[in-house]
Structure formats: C-alpha cells, structure tokens
Amino acid sequence: MTTTASATGPEGAAFLLTQLGSHAAARFAERVSRTGVSLRQAGLLRWIGGNPGRSQRELAEQFGVRPSRVVVLVDELEQQGLVRRAVPPGDRRTRLVTLTDHGHRTLRAVAAAFRRHEQEVLDPLSPEERATLTGLLERLAAHQGLVR
Questions:
Q1: Residue 101 near residue 45, CB atoms below 8 Å
Q2: Is the CB of residue 28 less than 8 Å from the CB of residue 117?
Q3: pTM for the whole thing?
C-alpha cells in the first residue's frame, strides 16, 4: 500500500520529526523559563554542574563558541548568582567556573522540568516503545553528527 501526500501538506517521518521537534522545543523552553534561566543558560549550567571547576576556555571548546562569548554568558550566570569564578594559583588568565548553591538548586529545577517534559511528550508510548524510539532517534542523530 502506498501513501500519498495529503491535501494539507507533506507527510513522512522527517516532516513529522520537524513538527514534533519544533513543538517540543517551544514547550521545553517555556518550562525552563519558569526556572528563571534560558535554554542556553540551562545547557551551560548542566555542563558546569557535570564538570565543576573547569575553565571558561574548556566551556568554549565544548560548545564551539569563541572564548569572548563564553565570558559574556558566564557573566550573565554570575550576575544571577548561579556560578562563581575562581583564579587558580599561578595562572591569573584562567577562570575556573563552578555552580553556587543557587546554581545547584536551579539545575535541579531544570532537571525536574526536563522530566516533566519527557513524560508529557512520551506519554502515549509504552516503556518498550519509548526505548525503541530513543534508540532510533539516537541512530538518526549520530548519522547527522548531532551526538558525540
């Protein structure tokens, strides 16, 4: 049996992934914003929380941005009381970044928002279907160079 495009637009997995991805991203951004941070800030907090005491230079390399841009991003987090910078002994040019207590609380709130989001998006699927979908999406993302 063949499938034809509907009168309302194209059909197919890639189109559905695009629609679902856009919808899911907007809903997740909305949820994360309730924690007081943006999606970009949430990503930075997650990395810093998982890599405490790493340098701003390492942060720039991880996210593929200029070190000067990282300075601005970390400035924002520091102004919100989410991170602190430290200068290691003997290297005045390096800045090591760690989460503050407020940063840890915010990161836990972001993680809770993610869990709620995951549940909402995948609610119609059984645990087995979720596992299958995750595996397939991981393969597709790896093929596109989106995961390391």
A1: no
A2: yes
A3: 0.79
Do the Cβ atoms of 37 and 110 come closer than 8 Å?
yes
Structure tokens at 55: 């340098």
Query: What domain range is 95 assigned to?
Result: 36-143
| Distance separating alpha carbons of residues 113 and 90, to the nearest angstrom | 40
Residue 97 lies in a domain: yes
Give the containing element (helix H, strand E) for 121.
helix 101-122
Q: What is the pLDDT of residues 16-38, one digit of tens each?
A: 999 999 999 999 999 999 999 99
- At 104, which CATH number? 1.10.10.10
97-120 pLDDT tens trace: 999 999 999 999 999 999 999 999
Residue 70 inside a domain? The answer is yes
Spatial strand order in the sheet of 83-86:
54-55, 96-99, 83-86
Q: CA nearest 48: which of 36, 38, 60?
A: 60
